[in-house]
Amino acid sequence: MLNRNSHLEFLYFLTTPNSEILAGIMEVHEHVFEGAKLMEEELVEKENVLIFVAVDGIRVVGFKIGYKFSEDTFYSWLGGVHSDYRGKGIASELMRRQHMLIKSLGYTKVRTISRNKRREMLLLNIKHGFDVLEAFTSEKGTHKIVMEKEL
């Protein structure tokens, strides 16, 4: 769905990005997750964090963040695309790029946790080869689905 006329640029960071990119990620996070704030400290404390962003001009329109889960498994933690940019294949492209890079870094599996409430992401994960490992209810009463994919 991404086409040659697209002005999107895809970037990645192996550390916390500059303040402009970080502010853009936080803005998209807040938009996607109904006002929930992402704190910079949450990114800094993750081991081997990897951050992908989709940028339109100077505007961050999507992101995908993950980190080392174990020696062979990468945890794809957070991601989202601003509603103004959905349906253009951005989330798929961010995922494709993340999986290519983490495979080149030596990871053999990628794990994520999704929610039934976020059906678009659940379906995207299944479309990209994730298998459901288990489902559980969090301490907050939220139903969650653990998924994993062999790279």
Describe the structure.
There is one protein chain. The chain is an alpha+beta fold. The chain has a domain at about 10-110: 3-Layer(aba) Sandwich (Aminopeptidase), CATH 3.40.630. The chain is built from four helices and seven strands, in the order βααβββαβαββ. It has helices at about 20-30, 40-45, 90-105, 120-125; strands at about 10-15, 50-55, 60-70, 75-80, 110-115, 130-135, 145-150. GO terms for molecular function: acyltransferase activity, transferring groups other than amino-acyl groups. It comes from Psychrobacillus glaciei. InterPro entries: Acyl_CoA_acyltransferase, GNAT_dom. This is N-acetyltransferase.
